[in-house]
Amino acid sequence: MLKFFRCFIVAYFSLFSYLCLARTSVSFDIFTTYLLSLNCL
Fold first, then answer.
1. How far apart are the first and last CA of the chain?
2. What is the rounded distance in angstroms from the CA atom of residue 11 to the CA atom of residue 18?
3. What is the rounded CA–CA span in Å between residue 9 and residue 26?
4. By three-state DSSP, how is residue 1 classified?
5. How far is CA 27 from the centre of its chain?
6. What pTM did the predictor assign?
7. Sign, Cα dihedral of 10, 14, 15, 20
8. In the chain, what are the domain boundaries?
9. What is the chain's mean pLDDT, rounded?
10. CA distance 14 to 29
11. Is the pLDDT higher at 32 or at 41?
12. Per-residue pLDDT tens over the stretch 23-36
């Protein structure tokens, strides 16, 4: 349960950050994918 909640927070924060930084950083999408895979798998 706690792991799922952590994954949800990370996913939400990553999505919010991506929406804010997508215009200035192309490689941020790769970092987000790596972060999500690291915390969710």
1. 14
2. 10
3. 22
4. coil
5. 13
6. 0.42
7. positive
8. 2-40
9. 72
10. 9
11. 32
12. 656 666 677 777 77
